[in-house]
Amino acid sequence: MSNKKLAPSILSADLTRLAEEIKKVEEGGADWLHIDVMDGHFAPMITLGPVFVSAIRSITKLPLDVHLMIDNPDGFIEPFSEAGADIMVVSVEVCSHLHYTIQCIKKGGCKAGVCLNPATPLSVLEGIIEDIDMVTLLMVNPGFKGQKFISGLINKVQKLRKMIDERGLQIDIEADGGISQDNIAQVAKAGANVFVTGTAVFSANDYKRAIQDLRGQIKV
């Protein structure tokens, strides 16, 4: 079984028909659901809270990949864990005590990940990489759906894969932002194995076909 996973982003779904949207991507072969949580500070949008995540948890068995794109995430780890998050990702740019934050996520029963903005260097992972389950690399600047993929970041994916492999670690690399049929193969070849897909799935007429097409691009 391939370790490559597709994680449609709820932010791009039709929220007025969310249960139907989730059912369609679940039946279409999605591996995870990606949920962006924004507070209007770290990222300019305000999106979903723990109550919403709890509602999603009640209608799907897919793993929930929750990205806390918020200031002061420590106070929200427990509510999102209790709401049903399976993987919780925090942005390194807002974590004053990253080791403590990662420990809190794991204590809550979730896998722990960290996210890097496009301009944030991989050097911030020194000292923490062995304690985490996933690194999310934003391939666009955070805050708005439908942004154009920054192709220059493929090299960053390659460098991260090398960093992980040289340490003999089993850590997922998640690529988030602008992932489409036009670039997903390049990102997979560079070393990513989890792909957040928003517009590429939810703007398609046939979600199952879109997921199949994306998966076909990343087969080994």
Can you lay out the helices and strands and say which pair or pack?
Elements: E1 5-8, H1 18-28, E2 33-38, H2 50-57, E3 64-69, H3 74-83, E4 87-91, H4 98-107, E5 111-116, E6 134-138, H5 154-166, E7 172-176, H6 184-190, E8 194-197, H7 199-202, H8 207-218
Parallel strand pairs: 1-8, 2-3, 3-4, 4-5, 5-6, 6-7, 7-8
Short account of what is shown:
With 220 residues, the chain is of the alpha/beta class. It contains eight helices and eight strands; from the N terminus they run βαβαβαβαββαβαβαα. α4 links the parallel β4 and β5.
Written account of the structure:
This protein is of the alpha/beta class and 220 residues long. It has a single domain, classed as Aldolase class I (TIM Barrel), CATH 3.20.20.70. The chain has helices at 18-28, 50-57, 74-83, 98-107, 154-166, 184-190, 199-202, 207-218, and strands at residues 5-8, 33-38, 64-69, 87-91, 111-116, 134-138, 172-176, 194-197. Helix 1 (18-28) crosses helix 8 and helix 5 (154-166) runs parallel beside helix 6. The longest helix is centred in the last third of the chain and has 13 residues, at 154-166. The radius of gyration is 16 Å and the shape is globular.
What composes the largest sheet? 8 strands, parallel
Distance between the termini: 11 Å
Structural class: alpha/beta
Second-tier CATH architecture = Alpha-Beta Barrel
CATH class: Alpha Beta
Order of helices and strands: EHEHEHEHEEHEHEHH
Reported by name, the CATH topology is: TIM Barrel
Q: What's the number of structural domains?
A: 1
Give unreliable regions as ranges. Answer: none
Radius of gyration: 16 Å
| Superfamily (CATH H level) name | Aldolase class I
The global form is globular
Strand content: 15-25%
Give the strand order of the largest sheet, numbering strands 1, 2, ... along the chain: 1-8-7-6-5-4-3-2
Number of helices: 8
